[in-house]
Amino acid sequence: MSSPFDLPGVEWTSVSPRLVVARRVVSTAGTVVSLVVVAVVATLWWSPWWIAAGAALFALGAWQWWLVGRQVRAIGYAEREDDLLVRRGILFRSLSVVPYGRMQYVDVSAGPLERWLRIATVQLHTASASSDATIPGLPPEEAARLRDRLSRRGEARLAGL
After folding, report:
1. Distance in angstroms (rounded) separating the CA atoms of residues 144 and 146
2. In the chain, domain spans
3. How far apart are CA 53 and CA 46, in angstroms?
4. How far apart are alpha carbons 133 and 150 in whole angstroms?
């Protein structure tokens, strides 16, 4: 039985492994802040439940740390003749097909952490807000190349209409 996510002849391009680092930094910061809050509250109002809460938060943080690596490996994109494919997800998988002729504009963005790790996010905007596609974790050179290439292909498709 074939899956709607397995497309024959499609070569997927992976995102940078630096995206794992960025997402783990954010996840770890949230876990550490939560653990500090639990520790302070446990110090002020002692109860064994606070130890259980701290252990649960730590376990959740460790699980997120592991999961981020798998999530990032599941992100990929492929440029085809008439459209761009973007896939993501492990348990809840998604595959977006964005025709070049439907693209209105392409954004490249990078926050402070992304700039420090030398990665960027490319976001495609289409006429339909529900069909926008995002490709996080691209090296800046690849993000610029993809932005320019997608813009050219989108303009060429619109001109041909």
Report:
1. 5
2. 18-72, 76-159
3. 12
4. 12
Write out pLDDT tens, residues 61-85: 999 999 999 999 999 999 988 888 9
Bridge partners for 76 per DSSP: 14, 87
| Distant-in-sequence, close-in-space partners of 133: CB < 8 Å, separation ≥ 6 | 84, 86, 96, 98, 123, 124
Residue 120 DSSP symbol: E
pTM of the predicted structure, to 2 decimals: 0.81
Composition of the chain by helix, strand, coil, percent to 5: 50, 25, 25
pLDDT attached to residue 72:
95
Residue whose tokens read 């639990």: 38
Comparing CA positions, the residue from 119, 88, 105, 80 lying closest to residue 5 is 88
- Per DSSP, the three-state class of 33 is helix
Q: At 127, is the secondary structure helix, strand, or coil?
A: coil
Does domain 76-159 bear CATH number 2.40.10?
no
Count CA within 13 A, CB hemisphere, residue 21. Answer: 11
Pairing of strands 120-126, 103-109: antiparallel
